[in-house]
């Protein structure tokens, strides 16, 4: 599969090893290095702060896209779900959006870890299954616990 941005081996390995118990994984495309390269964004979340979707939304840049892989337990559900959020804010530049969208299928494939197939989501500890890919364009209106839960129930 063709890709637009380079994905270093360490980023590939991190995506493949992600499990539901891991802290959220946030990636972006670094355009400053000459060749567009996918990097892990470790500066978004404060390790001392308790994680929530709302905290994540308020910490994300409003002018740059991100790929977000996280574990989320919808209200009233017995099991957590791994979700992949395609963060494309309305204020990002066209070039950044095109690089991001062009690399999205490769990032999603790496995160899915296609070596393992599951019959049902209740075997969540056996392997990683992304339950849904969500696209979010605006933090204030689109990235809240309630909206994520509603999208997962569809």
From TrEMBL:
It comes from Serendipita vermifera MAFF 305830. InterPro entries: ADF-H (IPR002108), ADF-H/Gelsolin-like_dom_sf (IPR029006). This is ADF-H domain-containing protein. Pfam families: Cofilin_ADF (PF00241). Residues 7-103 form the ADF-H domain. One of its GO terms (molecular function) is actin binding.
């Amino acid at each position: 599969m063709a890709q637009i941005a380079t994905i270093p081996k360490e980023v590939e390995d991190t995506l493949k090893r992600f499990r539901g118990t891991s802290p959220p994984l946030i990636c972006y495309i670094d355009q400053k290095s000459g060749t567009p390269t996918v990097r892990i964004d470790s500066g978004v979340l404060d390790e001392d702060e308790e994680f929530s979707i709302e905290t994540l939304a308020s910490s994300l840049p409003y002018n740059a896209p991100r790929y977000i892989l996280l574990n989320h337990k919808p209200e009233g559900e017995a099991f957590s779900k791994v979700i992949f959020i395609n963060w494309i804010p309305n204020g990002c530049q066209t070039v950044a959006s095109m690089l991001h969208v062009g690399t999205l299928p490769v990032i999603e494939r790496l995160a899915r870890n296609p070596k393992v197939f599951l019959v049902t989501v209740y075997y969540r500890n056996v392997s990683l299954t992304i339950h849904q890919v969500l696209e979010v364009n605006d933090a204030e209106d689109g990235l809240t616990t309630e909206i994520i839960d509603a999208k997962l129930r569809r």
